[in-house]
Amino acid sequence: LIIQAHRDTNHFYDDNLPYEYHLNLTNKTGKQFKYLIPDIWFWVEDLLWGHDGIEDARLTYNDIIKFALLAGHPREIAVKIAEGVRALTNYSRGRDRNERMPDYIYKEIAETEGATYGKLCDRIANCKHGLITGSTMRKRYLEEQPHFKEMLYPTSMNLQPMWDYLDKILIIDL
């Protein structure tokens, strides 16, 4: 459902890659750090698959619940997955990236179970891709890192290895 939704909207990653490339990279990052969240990994993995579904693939909150139910999760967990995807969804209309990512979105991410983990996996995946391709997004993420960390780090110190890894890949000079 998720991958097909991205295909149906002709949504690509980095202009020419099928979007499932990004979803796979995000999920692979999640697996790398799943030892940090052993009690919730069983559903956070599906949060990672769906993390851009509302924002980029025209899915609804209820579509995410359906996806999670089809994946075999009980309704309570399906709602947690949908809440995580909702928290990671940028609904803002803004003229630039700063206007589109206001602090209240970071606050919702920080307050929603599994969402900070999901956001870190997404950011790390994007930065890994940037290392491979020389994408300018890595430079933008480096510029954003102080504010990003200010907004999310205080509620996610149990994710320290992810923060350290992100800091490391942001400063690698190609």
How many strand segments?
2
Order of helices and strands: HEEHHHHHHHHHH
Which term fits the overall shape?
A: globular
Q: What oligomeric state do these chains adopt?
A: single chain
- Could you tell me how far the N terminus lies from the C terminus, measured between alpha carbons in angstroms? 37 Å
Sheet with most strands: 2 strands, antiparallel
Specify the structural class. Answer: mainly alpha
Poorly predicted tracts of residues: none
Rounded mean pLDDT is: 93
Total helices: the number is 11
Rg from alpha-carbon coordinates: 15 Å
Instruction: Work out the strand percent.
Output: under 5%
Roughly what percent helix? 55-70%
Give the spatial strand order of the biggest sheet.
Answer: 1-2
Describe this structure in words.
With 174 residues, the chain is mainly alpha-helical. 68% of the residues lie in helices and 2% in strands. A hairpin with a 3-residue loop joins strand 1 (12-13) and strand 2 (17-18).
